[in-house]
Amino acid sequence: MFQKTVKMKTNQRFDSSTNHLIAYPLHLADNALILGHRDSEWTGHGPILEQDIALSNIALDLIGQARNFYQYAAKLKADGSTEDTLAYLRDVNEFKNCLLVEQPNGDWGQTVTRQFLFSTYQYFLYQQLQHCSDKTIASIAEKGLKEVTYHTRWSSEWIIRLGDGTDESHTRMKNALNHLWEFTDELFIQSSYETGVAKHGIRVDHALIKEQWYEKVRSVLSEATLSIPESSQQKRENLGKEGHHTEHLYEILSEMQSLQRALPGCEW
Amino acid sequence: MNAVNNHISPKDLSETGIWNLMKDIYDPEIPVISIVDLGIVRSVELRELNKAEPKVTVTITPTYSGCPAMDVITMNIRMKLLEHGYKNIHIKTILSPAWTTDWMSREGKEKLAAFGIAPPNPSQSVCTLDLFQEQEVVQCPRCKSYHTKMVSRFGSTACKALYQCIDCNEPFDYFKCH
Predict the structure, then answer these.
(1) Is residue A1 part of a domain?
(2) Phi/psi of residue B2, each to 5°?
(3) What CATH code is carried by the domain that includes residue A225?
(4) Under an 8 Å CB criterion, which residues of A touch B?
(5) Angle CA(A77)–CA(A79)–CA(A85) in degrees, nearest 5?
(6) pTM recorded for the entire structure
(7) Residue B108, domain extent
(8) Which tens digit of pLDDT belongs to each residue from A131-154?
């Protein structure tokens, strides 16, 4: 339920380590919310009923994980923020999701490719996070891991069906991979707050995740008769994790946040 | 619906009594199984018995991260406790240890089957990363045949899958292992 007023404690002083401890669950929440929102855009438009329902349920899982992380971030902020104010009232440059999840759905092939690349990363990330020293993050990851296992499996199976499918499906998958591959680098680049929270025991071995991710991606793509695209020489400087987003996030938020911004504090 | 009591009579004050109240709260989508049978209620605590309003804490855990029934269940717990005169109510949600169908009671499974929903198989059938897994063999709750097939991994709710019996042709929901 949406709170009618948000009392901000303007005199509360945050040092950077507190900021990092808040930024990290916000980042995890934003990844889940934005991808969940993108997936939910397929609801009612899926190619087959069962897949429409499957992707909608995947969206629901992700939004549930986002809620858990937002509730935690709101508790840490302790300034009247709620899961709703964090999701619906922050501006584009305050969102910390990676650029991969805000990319448009495109065709079914592009959607499952985006899901595959991200869910595989989320799987190995949550596998580590469920053991981290922050009990709340660990428990959200432990719970989410069961669901993410299915997301990874579901999307892997689709990569194979479409990659090793017809000429048309194979071409579409090749295009999807070529388009999305450049956004995968960011997954393994540590943001300032990911480095910051490591000092508080929330240590994620990004090099290990990258290795595990690459191995899984390579093996699924190989079975799908698809090749790994060549990495672009140009490294993207601006990271979604640090609040630098493409125009796509503007589009998402202007739709997702439109009701709360038009009628602040409105409730069912 | 009972009228709201203004006092809790001393003989009603017990954690066992509150557990019994929880057994009367059903899953909003599956009206034959209680939140106790589902393993959603993890603990009940009654403290400060000497005070005018003893403190009740019910700890619950969600089945799936995004389960939309949890808000309704929380509200129903609060309503049930208010109806029985408790006022100092705290409902805590915990995520760890993660909910699993292993926590579903035997009675709960029997009630599901009687209602026409196939209860979850033992949890070694839980989803792994293995691709194109063999589907779990699920028994038809109507004709008891094992000659069944999965129609969709998702049914009317996130926790259920849609199956069809090849022998009697009837579709049925299966409560998935998780």
Answers:
(1) no
(2) -70, 150
(3) 1.20.1260.10
(4) 49-50, 53-54, 57, 60-65, 67-68, 123, 135-136, 138-140, 142-144, 146-147, 149-150, 152-153, 156-157, 160, 220
(5) 85
(6) 0.90
(7) 102-175
(8) 999 999 999 999 999 999 999 999
